[in-house]
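ok so heres the complex, two chains, lmk if somethin looks off
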Amino acid sequence: MRPAPRIWTGRLAAGQIYRLQVMDVSMRISRQPQRIESALPEQAGRTAVKKQLGRTSTISAATPLWIAARQMLKIHGKEFFKRWSKVVKSYDVEEIHDLRVASRRLREALALFEPCFAEKSMSRLSRKVKRVTGVLGDLRNTDEAIIFFSRLSAEEQQQSESELKELLSALEKERAAARKQLHADLERLQPGPLRSALKEELAALQLFGSTRIDPLQDLSSFANSAIAARELPLAGLLPRALDEADASAQHRLRIAVKRMRYRLEILEPLFGPEFSELHATLKGYQELLGKLHDLDVFAGMLLERLPEGAGRQGLMQAITARRSAQFAAFLAMLKTVPVDMIGARARRAF
Amino acid sequence: MVQTAADLQQLKGVGRVLAKRLYDAGFDSFAKIGQAGEAGLKKVRGVSPRYLSSIVEQARQLSESAHPEHVSAAEALQQRLSGVKGKLQTLAGDARERLGDRLSGKSGKKLSSDLVRIEDALQRVGEVGKKGAKRAGKALAKTEKRVAKLEGASLKKLHKGLKKARKAVLKVL
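and the predicted structre for the whole thing:
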């Protein structure tokens, strides 16, 4: 039987009631551990891909789609496997983060060029890559939570000293368990078969007889529709995300923003100088919405791990105050550059 | 542009100390030393008057030889590659128009595979260094001719022709 949601109610700065549906959050934690956005930069992988693009590829707006698709998938695949081998060597936090980002970029590239290949072949591959993204999530979640709770202000820490200690020690234990689990999971998920599967699928590109797409068209005409496809969810999700209490809509909007960002990064060779501005805007939105989501997850962690009481209430208030500030920053950003207009701007930029 | 001060030691008459002085004075490329000439270089402490003209001359030669030839060889190779890829694209379009329905099944898959494999080989050629650029250029010229001849060919001839073209490309590697 599905348990009834536990509802924690907090008061926001503007006097609005903030209801956090804890069941939703905890379900999200267990099902989608990889969703926590990192505070670490995502630049390393992108730079490596850019270098690779500059060195080996001649992709431009006029490049035929079938050539561009294979080249780009190869580059993102190479980056993903390179990061994977680095993680296996060191299990370093940064490397784990880079692998997660590389896996997401590869998944987005697979989704982008999917119509050029046999039906379902790319989604099969994407599911396999997603397993890797998934196993990296638990460790990341606990790392982020430990960083957040250890960096609370002295006053906030003092208010809930014993609860915070208890929480941090629980999280440390979880981190150790997650690290152990990650070793086991990555040993189980060997990169070899996935690499061969990717190679095989890339060789099986369908140049003729496809009813879904014309692989002989140039990349720029394809990119136009590809960006438009990612633009729709942004516009659709925005109205609900404007409701501060609707954490799930904000979370879904963040995912849509992230997908659009990765899509633009993949298609970067097509863009002119406007790319950096578009990219920075998307990154800004992703970070803001990511922080909002992190706070929701942290609140869920508190409710799951700490008993009710003044200490927990104090920590919840600290989270609510931060969430409110982040949401205000999100609204302010919307006024400067509306998120639903980014796709249209991107399509005009090449 | 040189990466570090030590790179300037390639110039005869420039040691570790002088290289650092030159670098600190803003001479971070051989071209800049060449442009500054003897008069400009005299301002840097420790440049031997005996080597002055030689350093400037060496710097000019290095700056000229470092870039244009290498860039042009690489650029020529890339242009040639784009040419062959363009021909492949035309060939694929032409085949689709002429052969239409015949390409929807196994034959289409086979022709796709031929084109993909030759594109792979071309991609690998594009990664050869400047040493192999000249040789690669020649092979690509041959391939371009072979591919151009295939326009209007039958499906069987297309398979054979593309196989030969791919072999010609792979010889370079």
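quick notes: The longest helix of chain A spans residues 275-305. thats all i got rn
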